[in-house]
């Protein structure tokens, strides 16, 4: 009996100290011959929690929303050992980026309307996008530094820029844009790190945004899901935050948009019109959109019908 009690005690002690998830572990055993009396062998103090950095916490929140449709502020606050106000700010930030929908007491997965992926969009309005891309490529001067975001129209711009062979340096979050520019030996391409978004063949997320924030360029070229007198809008998950980061790091900002984008606002607002330097379009914008562009001081460049060099 004594041998059995010692073995049981040792096993219990090892179990209590080897498992770091036990905040408090009490192991009891009964002495041989004792009547109704247990002896506490070991008691462990609560293990200190390790606080995550904000970027890591944001990543965990997004991962949690992939596993279940809704998360609550109180639960996240307890899990990450931070205040409810800190979690509330995290969720507000994610909501502004279009990555979550804010709900009472927490957040839920965003419910986006159907938006075609990059491959499907590349097959639509090809002539209009090519005209815009050709006109935009002619704006770039040798030695310029640029940022180009992901999109079907910006991809056409990248193709014509590579064709012209204008020496420049380009930072992009789009693998398609990087591949197109890679055909020119005169273009130096810097590709952002980040979370890969397969339907867009591009990267998004905190790593990409932080990378963009460490660079400054003369000019950026971006696309949009829609644009109107109220501003520039985006539907694709995570793209709004990328566009905002790019706009913040460029001295001049050019929007590329065909007339199918002149419509009511989409899900997430990216910028106001006065955040733009110019827009390259395939036709003159309608009113009141045209008037709003003029009032904001935005230069309007209409791509010509002539596609010859």
Q: What is the percentage of strand-forming residues?
A: 15-25%
Overall helicity: 25-40%
Kindly report how far apart the N and C termini lie. 97 Å
- How many strands in all? 17
> Spatial order of the strands in the main sheet?
8-7-6-11-14-16-17
**What profile does the largest beta sheet have?**
7 strands, parallel
Element order: H for helix, E for strand: HEEHEHHEEHHEHEHEEEHEEEHEEEHE
CATH architecture of the largest domain: 3-Layer(aba) Sandwich
Helices, by number, come to: 11
Number of domains in the coordinates? Answer: 3
- Summarize model confidence as the mean pLDDT: 82
Please, could you describe this protein's structure?
With 309 residues, the protein is of the alpha/beta class. 37% of the residues lie in helices and 24% in strands. The protein has three domains: 2-43, no CATH class; 54-108, Arc Repressor Mutant, subunit A (Orthogonal Bundle), CATH 1.10.10; 118-302, 3-Layer(aba) Sandwich (Rossmann fold), CATH 3.40.50.1360. It has helices at residues 2-18, 54-67, 73-80, 84-96, 118-122, 126-137, 152-164, 175-181, 206-213, 239-248, 289-295, and strands at 26-30, 38-43, 70-72, 101-103, 106-108, 144-148, 168-172, 187-191, 195-197, 202-204, 217-222, 226-228, 231-234, 250-256, 268-271, 278-281, 299-302. The strands form five sheets. A seven-stranded parallel β-sheet has the order 8-7-6-11-14-16-17, sandwiched between helices. Strand 4 and strand 5 (106-108) form a beta hairpin. The longest helix is centred in the first third of the chain and has 17 residues, at 2-18. It is globular and about 60 Å long.
């Amino acid at each position: 009996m004594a041998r059995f009690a010692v073995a049981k005690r040792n096993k219990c002690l090892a179990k209590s100290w080897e498992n770091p998830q036990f905040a408090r572990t009490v192991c009891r055993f009964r002495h041989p011959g004792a009547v109704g009396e247990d002896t506490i062998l070991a008691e462990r103090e609560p293990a200190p929690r390790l606080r995550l950095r904000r970027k890591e916490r944001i990543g965990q929140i997004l991962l949690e929303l992939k596993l279940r449709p809704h998360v609550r502020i109180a639960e996240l606050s307890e899990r990450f050992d931070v205040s409810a106000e800190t979690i509330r700010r995290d969720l507000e930030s994610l909501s502004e980026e279009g990555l979550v929908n804010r709900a009472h007491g927490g957040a839920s997965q965003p419910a986006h309307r159907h938006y075609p992926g990059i491959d499907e969009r590349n097959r639509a309005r090809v002539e209009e996008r090519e005209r815009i891309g050709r006109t935009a490529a002619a704006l770039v001067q040798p030695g310029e530094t640029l940022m180009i975001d992901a999109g079907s129209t910006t991809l056409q711009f990248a193709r014509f820029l590579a064709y012209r062979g204008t020496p420049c340096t380009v930072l992009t979050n789009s693998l398609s844009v990087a591949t197109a520019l890679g055909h020119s030996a005169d273009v130096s391409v810097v590709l952002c790190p980040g979370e890969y978004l397969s339907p867009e063949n591009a990267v998004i997320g905190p790593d990409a945004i932080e990378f963009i924030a460490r660079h400054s360029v003369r000019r950026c070229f971006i696309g949009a899901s829609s644009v109107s007198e109220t501003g520039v809008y985006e539907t694709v998950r995570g793209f709004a935050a990328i566009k905002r980061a790019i706009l913040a790091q460029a001295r001049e900002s050019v929007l590329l948009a065909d007339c199918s984008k002149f419509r009511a606002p989409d899900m997430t607002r990216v910028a106001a019109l006065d955040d733009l330097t110019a827009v390259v379009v395939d036709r003159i914008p309608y009113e009141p959109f045209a008037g709003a562009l003029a009032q904001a001081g935005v230069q309007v460049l209409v791509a010509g019908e002539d596609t010859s060099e």
